[in-house]
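Thread: quick sanity check before group meeting

JM: Hey all, I'm pulling together slides for Thursday and realized we never actually wrote out the predicted structure for the chain we discussed last week. Dropping the sequence here so it's in one place. If anyone has concerns about the input, flag it before I start.
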Amino acid sequence: MTPQQLGLGFELDGPAEAPPLPRPARARSSPKARVPTAPAAQASVALSDVERMAHLLEAHPDYRVLRRLVPTLHFGRAPQGPVRTLLVLDTETTGLEAAKEKVIELALLRVAVDTATGLPVGPVQVYDGLEDPGRAIPPAITDITGITDAMVRGQRLDEALIAQMMVGVDLVVAHNAGFDRPFVEARLPEFARLPWACSFADLDWKALGQSSAKLESLALACGWFYDAHRAETDCHALLAVLAQPQARFGHAKPSEGSDLGPTGLSLLLAAADQTHHRLQATGAPFEAKDALKARGYRWDGQQRVWGTTLRSEAALADELVWLADAVYSGPTRVRVEALSALQRYSTRGGAPSLRTVGTSALGL
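JM (edit): ok, ran it. Output follows.
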């Protein structure tokens, strides 16, 4: 369909569709960390006209425009308060089990975040490296990631460079830290010394009106599409999504000049400072399983116990009251692990204690 048929009221000097922007170049365990350059603008005389078409469509209530996400490699704004240093991290692996499978790609974005605004500031330092897993990459993994045996043959992560990027980092952020952290720590144990946050689990995307917390879906909600399932590209998409004020993800579009609220980055920094509590419903009667499942508890087949995670001491106190009312018929002690950001999403446990259910005192 031509622009004239759409009734947009202007002529194009070139093709109706601009070709996609080129994909950013990838480092392959280069000798030093890089700050890659942004993709060059398309050399097409029609690009400005295409953008005018996009603006016209955006103004119409029956249309929505998606733009290719272009990585931001330098945030020119000046910080208004102290900054904290984040590593945005993603991996590609040969499979799902960290005990059996291997990392084949690791990407890191090192960026400073202004604590006053929750916005990234200054340059973005990028690392993206491949690694030979010493075995054939399963065809299903190649289908998803595009990474082939030939691409990783003889490749190895640059451990010295990665260690440099870790210096002074306040928080590692991954979109599925429960997956990425065990893989990364198995390959690079130094990551166990850093606190971690999970943008998938630590943010309540459902409360923000999102039916899916998948990164591609969140990017679409911001008006972006990108080539997913490569580690560096996913990192850039995650940073862009987390730099958005959370009100932009709500059901209603915020009014002009309204307070858009904190960014995902600021919410993750706040969450990292809190202690979480992994609670086990020790000795819960069999007939309580449906209530526990509906409450969000998960069954641990190895320890044979229902468990859940509470994100504050107040939430833990409320949960103990609910257990007394809905699960246990008398006073019971349940096991609780206190988890800081140093332990969360790892295979390591936290500090254990026993809490009493069914009395007013939450004694140890």
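AS: nice. Residues 76 and 122 are 6 Å apart (CA to CA). Residues 276-357 form a domain with the Alpha-Beta Plaits fold (CATH 3.30.70).
JM: adding both to the slides.
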